[in-house]
Automatic annotation (TrEMBL):
Biological process per Gene Ontology, one example term: cobalt ion transport
Pfam families: CbiQ
GO cellular component: ATP-binding cassette (ABC) transporter complex
CDD domains: EcfT (cd16914)
Gene, per the UniProt record: cbiQ
Transmembrane annotation, as ranges: 23-53, 65-84, 115-135
The organism of origin for this protein: Vagococcus humatus
The protein's name in its UniProt record: Cobalt ECF transporter T component CbiQ
Length: 226
């Protein structure tokens, strides 16, 4: 079981109806998209505290979660505020290069701030939803939303194969480590190539075993959800 699933099943909100959590998630996302940076920052702080408390995780762990996508958000922030123009009229700080002015666009700062806090706020909403809704509840929520059964079944199978890939990757990697497969850069490249090759073969083998198992249980082409 993935750590995020373990956290979700142990969450203080696990017994709350998934419909309520789904509606709350959508409402929070709307507030994050429509609110001002001050509202977004305030909601982010509140959601961070609620997530840490209900999921029984440490502040350090939550900060690590936030830091993972933070570089991509910062790249977007810098891209918006950085401009190249013919004049330095609207530039807060500028440098002249080959007759052009490169610097920080003062007019783009409000939009960049709004984008930054909106992205961080939406991340906080998604983290709270992820650690409070186990996967079985998520499938029921998708069914309540009247999504096609095929889409729900594909989601369930993809989720299952995530565990298969992680398990097979860990087993192969540990076996290679025990044989000093990553001792040098050359052996690391070689071992990584072998890992991908064996992982591909093992994944198909596990898939065929799963198909045989389903056929033995008289699988009719659908997974009933209750």
């Amino acid at each position: 079981m993935l750590s995020i699933d373990r956290i979700a099943y142990q969450s203080k909100l696990v017994n709350v109806a998934p419909e309520i959590k789904g509606i709350a998630y959508l409402v929070l996302l709307i507030l994050m998209f429509q609110g001002t940076p001050l509202i977004q920052a305030t909601l982010f702080a509140i959601l961070a505290v609620v997530t840490i408390y209900t999921a029984n995780i440490t502040i350090k762990r939550y900060v690590k979660w936030i830091l993972l996508p933070l570089p991509f958000i910062l790249i977007s922030f810098i891209t918006i505020i950085f401009s190249v123009t013919d004049t330095d009229t609207n530039l807060l700080v500028s440098v002249s290069v080959f007759g052009k002015y490169m610097g920080l666009n003062q007019e783009a700062l409000p939009m960049a701030y709004s984008l930054f806090f909106r992205a961080i706020g939406c991340l906080a909403c998604t983290f709270l939803f992820s650690v409070s809704v186990p996967f079985n509840q998520m499938l029921l929520l998708l069914k309540k939303c009247r999504l096609p059964s095929v889409l729900i079944e594909i989601t369930m199978l993809m989720y299952r194969f995530i565990f298969i890939l992680i398990e097979e990757t860990a087993n192969i990697y540990h076996a290679q480590q025990m044989r000093y497969g990553f001792r040098t850069l050359k052996t690391s490249y070689h071992s990584f190539g072998l890992l991908l090759k064996v992982l591909f073969v093992q994944s198909f083998d596990r898939y065929e075993k799963m198909v045989v198992s389903l056929e033995m249980k008289y699988f009719q082409g659908d997974f009933p959800l209750h």
